[in-house]
Each structure stands twice: as structure tokens, then as C-alpha cells.
Amino acid sequence: MERQGLDAKVSTNDCKSENVSRKRKLAEHRKSLPVASVESSLMQEVLRNDTLIIVGETGSGKTTQIPQFLFNAGFCRDGKAIGVTQPRRVAAVTVAKRVAEECGVEVGQKVGYSIRFEDVTSSSTRIKYMTDGLLLREALLDPYLSRYSVIIVDEAHERTVNTDVLLGFLKKVQKTRSRSLNDSFNTENMNTNGKLEKGNNGKYVSSLRQHRGRKLHPLKLIIMSASLDARLFSEYFGGAKAFRVQGRQYPVAISYTRKHVLDYTEATLITIFQIHLEESPGDILAFLTGQDEIESIETLAKETIQKLPESKRNLVVIPIYSALPSEQQLRVFAPTPPGVRKVILATNIAETSVTIPGIKYVIDPGFVKARTYDPNKGMESLIVFPTSKAQALQRSGRAGREGPGKCFRQYPEDMFYKLEDSTKPEIKRCNLSNVILQLTALGVDNVTEFDFLEAPPRQAIFKSLEQLILLGAITNDGKLKLSDPVGHQMARIPLDPIYSKALIVASQFNCLEEMLITVSMLSVESIFYHPREKQEEARAKMKCFSSPEGDHLTLINVYRSAVDFLNKKKLELSKEKLEKSLRKWCKENFINSRSLRHARDIHSQIRRHVEQMGLPLNSCGDDMLQFCRCLAGSFFLNVATKQPDGTYRDFSSGEVVQIHPSSVLFRKKPDCFGGIQHWTAPLQKVFGEVISTERSTKFLDSATVSEGYTVD
Ligand code: ADP
Ligand code: MG
Prior knowledge:
By secondary structure, the chain is of the alpha/beta class.
């Protein structure tokens, strides 16, 4: 007994000393970062300038340190918060967890994060990491973003559509807030006389303190970027000052392939093992385009490791991509035991958003998956593109952060010179419906005149306006409908406008419960999982859920079967065991348990939204015709009808379309179907009700659709 007690004491002491040494290491690491040496000059610049652009290489400590500097400089007095936006969810989560640890607090307290469908903040949160899209949504409830004293728009060089829109919106808010301050208090201008002094407690005291009690603080804007071109941002913000943080960059030796490679995934796999077997110690970072590619290389790499001689099996494979659960994402930061090399398989989130330490080798196949939009067809898709030169340089730079490194580009050298200089901003190649609805709800009346950093193509704006008019969200002159709350309601639901409209329509069709499940399941990546070696077995299982009434009902069947399973087991199992047995159930039924979990999360979040909005959570029971009517009324923009020659044409654009082979309708060939992505439902019975013979088939007025359905 005594011995045991002693052991326990020793292990508690061990734990304590481990904690102390971890804290010390964290503090040392923080001090060693390039931004640490410029803290006070940087804070002086923030005080002097309303808008500041900070440029610094990846890994210099911008994202993790600068919000902490601002906190220490007094920018969170009076309960104000510092908001830091990220284009990627992964970055918001991992960085918030890291900064919470550096501050010695639980994430969700002083440091928190908020991303779509996950809010880990509290009233005490002062440094809040979030996605740029989330801040735009927050603005719907707080148009002056009055709880923030500073907003940092991080990774601005990524030029995601939300970043671009946010910049335009923040520019407006900043003007309004300083106008309100000048109007009501024509006193000293804190931007020019703001002097930074250290107080008794060693923390900075800023002149912000003098502004206590005022209604609106001036808003400080900080735009951060890893790329060197600050000019565009500076000009946009009226010649805003750019502050450069000198990063460390060691030389990186670049090698190219001699010939074009036919299969870059295979080439990447070979290169991983060449490095592992021939090069000195150091971790490897390989850039791939998406989850599927990463998963298949992960499996192949693990199999190959098993075939190596025992002494060479010291290689661990770690994936990172946005759909990975966040505990697993954090694995990339865990140091490997001595003598073990790690290879990280990442999407371009590891390009600049997430800084992974220890990388000495980079493998760059030269591709990236990105959104494209065809305004003529009104269709958006994810396509694999060659990277730009700027991206290739960013990627290779990742090998030289801690010492000299090597980058293996999986293409011949002449290809590099043919790459575009920089990536086209997303706003020029995506569907703008969501953004336009958001802007309209934020009070921007004429989106074609909005002060964008770079304006999107007018044709894309018009196409999206047309879609929103057809969905009944805005009036013909592009304003949010005052007489009808539908546009406001749609803007508040964090989903694509088509899905938001579907939920609102469903509440009128008595099938909100069914539609809520449908949009949750449609919002996640592949629900069904068909491993190559078990195709037949998987197909047979899928049939158990299949509904002749289409894929949407099939998805509902899967969701409800899972919920039934959970309800049955709920009484006998603990929460942890319950999730484990659900994973087993998913495996047996060839369902992707991660996607299902994600769908359940989305379901509970959206359910909260619709309940708050007062929509009745009703169900149509077995009346599937009612649900199909609702599908037709919701997805009428994506309806296709069979032509005499047996092909299908999209109802509004006239484009030839096909039913996806994975759809339950693939063999049935209905006369008319509708849906979204590759999930389709036969709509001939119900859709026929609303197609009047004289009406042009080019545009279908949404009002007519709903009228058509209410008159049974
Ligand atoms: P920047 O924004 O300039 O690219 P960051 O502030 O993200 O730099 O990162 C600074 C340092 O902190 C890097 O060395 C990075 O490896 C480390 N770091 C960041 N996030 C984590 C994390 N979650 N776990 C461990 N180290 C991290
Ligand atoms: Mg960063």
C-alpha cells in the first residue's frame, strides 16, 4: 500500500514537473519567434494607424502572437474583444487551442473560437478566432461589430470570397464607427497621439482606456498576409501602412522531375519513400488536393511501411484536411519520438494557414483543388488546377523554416515558368448568391456598386441576383423584401440560399423535420462508403436504405435508422460506448461514420436556428407526395426533364444533364427529376402541376411554384 502511495506521489510530481517544463518550453518558443522582437514597435504602429497591414513569412508568429500582444496592450479593456478571422476552419480551431495553451487557459474562456456549427466561446472570451464567413454572419446581428476593438483579417492573401467581402464590409464599418465617434466626441484623436506605456503591472496601458464609456470605439483593422505584395491592400485602404516582420528563411534546394509525371499521387508516394530511405532526418510535408487522395495515399504508404525492413519502419503517416475531426488535426503538431520521421499528407491548408514545425522536405505535385463557377450554366464545381507560381514558392518555403531544406516538385522545370503568377481570387470564380444575400441583408442596397477589393464579373453578380429573385429572397430591384421575412430568414440560416429556402418552404409543407434531415445530409461529404474490395456487399447494404422516391428519402432513411439504433441502445450504453457502437453499425452498413456524425452536428445546429426563427418543426409522416412537392418547390432551379431522344435537359438553362450513376434513379429514368449535387428525386407527378403550358420554360417564377403547390 505504502509503495503504491509513493508511486502515486512520484507520478503527480512527475506530472507537475512535466507541466512546468512544457510551460517553460512554450515561453521560450514564443520568445524565439520573429514577431517577439518587434512587439513594442508593432503595438505603437497599431495605435498610430486605424488600418495596418502586417506582412510576415509563415511561421513568424503572426497568428498566434499578435492577438496576445494586443490583449496585453489593453485592447480588451471595457470587455471588448479582439476578433481574428481565418479563411479555414482548421486554422481557427488549431490556433485557438494553441493560443489558449500559451495563455494557460481552457479554450472557450479567454481564448475561444467559433466556426460554422461549432461555437467554443463564452462571455469571458477576449481573443476570438473564427472563420471570415462567421464574422459576416455575426454582423447580421451586430452591424457595427461593436463588441470588437480590433479585427484582424488573417491570411488575406488567400483572397477567399468571404475575405474579400469582409474587407469591403469592414471598411464601411470602420468609417461609420469613426464618424460616430467624431460626431459625438470631437476630442483628441487617439490614432495620432496614442502613446504606449507600460503600467505598474508590466502590461501595456493604451490610450484606449480614455475612451471608456463611449458608445462606439474606433475600429482597428489589421490585415495580415504571408505574401509580400501588400500594395493592393494598402491602396484599397487609402494608402494604409504596411509593417513587415522579418522571418527566417534558410535555403531550400528545389528539384524537378525530368519528364511529365502521369500520376502525381504515385510519384508522391515514391518520393516519400525515396526521402525516407535516402535523406537525412527531418519531417516530410506532401501537398495533395483532397481527402480522397490523402486517404488513398495514407493507406498505400502504411502498407508500404509494413513491407520495409524492421529498421526502416520508423515512419509515421499523418493526414490533415478540413473534414478531419479536430482532435486528429492536432496530431500534426505532436512531436515524433527520437528516430521517427513523420510524413504529413496535407491539402493546401498547410500552405500558409497552419504552420507545422519540423518540416525539412516538401513534396509538391503542383496541383490544388479550387472552386470554379460557370455563370452561364449557374453551376459551381470543385476542380483540380495547377498551382500558381506564388503557391509553389509558398510551398517550397515551408521546407526552410528551421534549417536548410529540400523541395521536390513533381513536374519538369519548364512547367514552373508556365504557371500563372498568382491565384485568381475566389470572388472571380464562384457562385455569389450567398455573398449577395449576406450583403443585401447587411444593408448594401446595390451590390453592383459595392466597393470590392476587386469586383467579381458582372455576369456572375447578375446570375446570382436572378437566382435570389427566383428564390423569393429579394425584390426585382435587388433589395431585401420588406413585406416578406423570407430573405431575412434565409440570410440568417448558415447554409446555401437554396437549402435555407428549402427549410422555409418545408415548414409550410408540413415536412420541416424531413427537410432538416435532408439538408444536413446534403451538407456533408459522401455518406455512403464503397470500399473497392467490397463493392457488391456495400451495394446490397445500400439497397436496404434505398427509396424508390429518390435519394433524398434514401438519405432520410439512413439518418432515421441511425437515430433509431442510438435510441435503442441509449439506455444500456454509456455515451462513449454508444458512439463506438454507432461507428460499428456504420461500418457494417457501409456508411461513413464521420460524415454521419457531421450531419448530426449540422442537424442540431440548424434545428436550433429554425426553432429560434419560430418555424414549426412539423413532419409529413408517410405522406411522401407532400415531401416530393416540397422538394420540387425548393429545388425547382435544378429540375431536368426527359427529351424525346431520351436525354435530359436542365429546365432553366437548357443544358444537357445526366442522372448520376450512384443515384437510385439512374436505372429508373423518370420523365422529370430534380435535386442538388448528385442526389436526385423523381418529380414528374408533382412538378407537372406547376408547369403551365403557355408559360415560358426559361424562367419559372418562384411565386408561381409555391402557389401551384398550395392549390392542391
Ligand atoms: P504565422 O501566423 O506567422 O504563420 P503562427 O503564429 O501560426 O505563425 O505560428 C508560430 C509558431 O507556432 C510556429 O512555429 C508554429 O509551428 C507554432 N504553432 C502554431 N500552432 C501550433 C499548434 N497548434 N501546436 C504547436 N505549435 C503550433
Ligand atoms: Mg498565420
